[in-house]
Write a structure and sequence with these properties.
GO terms for molecular function: 7S RNA binding; endoplasmic reticulum signal peptide binding; GTP binding; GTPase activity. By secondary structure, the protein is an alpha/beta fold. About 55% of the residues lie in helices and about 10% in strands. The chain contains 23 helices and 8 strands. Strand 5, helix 9 (about 230-240) and strand 6 form a beta-alpha-beta unit. The model is unreliable at about 345-360, about 415-425 and about 455-470 (pLDDT under 50). Guanosine-5'-triphosphate (GTP) binds near residues 110 and 115.
């Protein structure tokens, strides 16, 4: 994903500035210019980038900062905040309530991934116990109803549409009425897309919206549309009351910066992102963890949520106990990758890891000593699993890296779901200093800097959210 490159460029710019002996006007300008270049290359709208630069300069008034101030930290925080501000319109979107009927209308250009996203959205809520239903009001594209029908059938979600009726407004109204009677609590209306922003598309959308009175209109945007994002999003916003954005195809080579522009154009938050063609390749979008990850700062709370989501309930206490004892074995890594495999396509990534089969012996799996595996054993595993020795070595390196992180977490009480404040109580600067990569700790100003930063941040959740546990 090109967004990762953007994050890399921004982090490097901050790092370069940190390395300067004195952080003066020139060092700050160089850093901001570098960030500006990176954002423009990622297709973020020029005006947004310029405003960001001006805001940071306003916040970071070098003349006002006394010599003792940690200028680098203040600048880094300002950049973090400004990036968050770009993605956060300041007001949350309408959130449907489970058990109470809500109508959600999807709009977007043809091929943006609208129909796929409707089903993903329905499926996401269905997994959480909702009763969603899909209405196909796209009478423009031949095959649109079939596509929705196929997706809905696969996900066992009720659907409504017609092969004969050509009036999208009538279909939408009939579908919504029917599912309201059937007590569905999330009625999703898929509308037509067009190649271009034609007047006919907007008129049709307006009519469907007027007739169905949606509680929320979601604008679906393909992340690869680049600089065109701002105008496109604005055109939609002018015709219907767009309340939220979903950015699709974030898994591709898209620059992704258009997402930032769409938020500004619609003044609506991005609520989900699409990360693949499959039903479950769909992620809730949260601004702070996203910017943290973008800046290479990790996303601890997201990681904990993933554990709670992916690991079967009955295995969670045991796993968390083992992890808190710093006892991370190859078997744990294997089992967790297997749990991830169950999630579907993400497994494709992990299935490329070699040796996760009968190739590994129990002794090897349950030992926390990677030295058990010598060169000839690695060659044997590579042969047996049809992989390159280099891949086996890489897998062991990854294991060592994770084991190192977890060994440093020894003694840390891991909270249950929804108990992040427990983490704050148990997490102290000592733990954090062990987990942070040394260069990042240095940047923060060593233990002293870390302690005061933790105090400032108020809770360890935010700290972990910002800096993550990785030491890649
Ligand atoms: N890689 C990837 N492909 C996606 C994603 N979302 C949708 N697609 C693909 O994009 C293509 C277009 O998606 P559709 O859902 O048919 O697009 P649409 O916007 O509904 O098109 P119209 O109904 O014609 O307006 C399909 O091949 C989808 O599988 C995503 O997040 N990642």
């Amino acid at each position: 994903m090109v967004l990762a490159q953007l994050g890399g460029s921004i982090s490097r710019a901050i790092q370069q500035m940190s390395n300067a002996t004195i952080i003066d006007e020139k060092a700050l300008n160089d850093c901001l210019n570098e960030i500006t270049r990176a954002l423009l290359q990622a297709d973020v709208q020029f005006k947004l980038v310029r405003d960001m630069q001006t805001n940071i300069k306003k916040i970071v008034n070098l003349d006002d900062l006394a010599a003792g101030h940690n200028k680098r930290k203040i600048i880094q925080q300002a950049i973090f905040n400004e990036l968050c501000k770009m993605l956060d319109p300041g007001k949350p979107s309408f959130t449907p309530k489970k058990g109470k009927p809500s109508v959600v209308m999807f709009v977007g250009l043809q091929g943006s991934g609208k129909t796929t996203t409707c089903t993903k959205y329905a499926y996401y809520h269905q997994k959480k116990g909702w009763k969603p239903a899909l209405v196909c009001a796209d009478t423009f594209r031949a095959g649109a109803f079939d596509q929705l029908k196929q997706n809905a059938t696969k996900a066992k979600i009720p659907f409504y549409g017609s092969y004969t009726e050509s009036d999208p407004v009538k279909i939408a109204v009939d579908g919504v009425d029917r599912f309201k009677k059937e007590n569905c609590d999330l009625i999703i209306v898929d509308t037509s897309g067009r190649h271009k922003q034609e007047a006919a598309l907007f008129e049709e959308m307006r009519q469907v919206s007027e007739a169905t009175k949606p509680d929320l209109v979601i604008f679906v945007m393909d992340s690869s549309i680049g600089q065109a994002a701002f105008d496109q999003a604005q055109a939609f916003k002018q015709s219907v009351a767009v309340g939220a954005v979903i950015v699709t195809k974030m898994d591709g080579h898209a620059k992704g910066g258009g997402a930032l522009s769409a938020v500004a154009a619609t003044k609506s938050p991005v609520i989900f992102i699409g990360t693949g063609e499959h039903m479950d390749e769909f992620e809730v979008f949260d601004v702070k963890p996203f910017v943290s990850r973008l800046l290479g700062m990790g996303d601890w709370s997201g990681f904990m949520d993933k554990i709670h989501e992916v690991v079967p309930m009955d295995q969670q206490p045991e796993l968390l106990q083992k992890l808190s004892e710093g006892n991370f074995t190859l078997r744990i890594m294997y089992e967790q990758f297997q749990n991830l495999l169950k999630m579907g396509p993400i497994g494709q990534v992990f299935s490329m890891l070699p040796g996760f089969s009968a190739e590994l012996m129990p002794k090897e799996l349950d030992s926390s000593n990677p030295k058990l595996m010598n060169e000839s054993r690695m060659m044997r595993i590579a042969r047996g699993s049809g992989r390159h020795v280099r891949e086996v070595m890489e897998m062991l390196e990854e294991y060592k890296r994770l084991a190192k992180i977890w060994s440093k977490m020894k003694g840390l009480k891991i909270p249950k779901k929804g108990e992040m404040s427990a983490l704050s109580r148990n997490m102290n600067a000592q733990h954090m200093s062990k987990v942070l990569p040394p260069q990042m700790l240095k940047q923060i100003g060593g233990m002293g800097g870390l302690q005061s930063l933790m105090k400032q941040m108020g809770s360890a959740k935010d700290m972990m959210g910002m800096f993550g546990g990785g030491d890649k």
